Amino acid sequence: MNEPNEAYLKLIKEKMPKSKHLLTMFRAFWTGGTICCIGQAFTDLYTFLFSELGEKDVAALTTITLIFITAVLTGFGIYDKIGAYAGAGSIVPITGFANSVVSPAVEHKREGVVFGLCANMFSVAGPVIVFGISSSVVVGLIVILFKGAFGG
């Protein structure tokens, strides 16, 4: 009974394309690093230009800028090409989240503003938000329980 399985696994191993792990990791590393460097450049620029703003305000302005740039690039189909090239390197949290919000909206724009753009905008990002908030509540409750149990 094991012989057909072994033959099948051997056939799969022969036919399956070889993965280029090092190249894929390199692309993800330098692309993600470049996105982070761009974010840091905006932070430095905003700190220089708006010296009266505090650190939190500059961070918020940088975040908004990165979200806007990602949304525009996604709208024009450029960010999808970056993602195809860089893989996981393109999903740096801010830009990856912005892309996951805009992509479904762009795909459904032909259905109109309400039923297309608005209804599908959070189809991918919605579960991330729900499970992110839910898991943070669970972790917070665990921390409270352990602090109470151990007198911390």
Radius of gyration: 22 Å
For the secondary structure, the number of strands is: 0
Distance between the termini: 58 Å
Uncertain spans: none
Spatial shape = extended
The domain tally reads 2
Strand content: under 5%
Number of helices: 7
Major sheet size, sense and barrel closure:
none
Helix content: over 70%
* SSE pattern, N- to C-terminal: HHHHHHH
> What would you call the structural class?
mainly alpha
The whole-number mean of residue pLDDT values reads 85
Molecular structure report:
This protein is 80% helix and 0% strand. The protein has helices at 2-15, 21-49, 55-75, 78-86, 93-107, 113-120, 125-150. By secondary structure, it is mainly α. The chain contains 7 helices and no strands. The protein folds into 2 domains: 22-121, no CATH class; 124-152. Helix 3 runs parallel beside helix 5 (93-107).
From the structure above, extract its key features.
152 residues, mainly alpha, 2 domains, 0% strand
List the helices and strands and how they pair.
Blueprint: H1 2-15, H2 21-49, H3 55-75, H4 78-86, H5 93-107, H6 113-120, H7 125-150
Helix pairs in contact: 2-3, 3-5, 5-6
Concise account of the structure shown:
The chain has 152 residues and is an all-alpha fold. It is built from 7 helices and no strands.
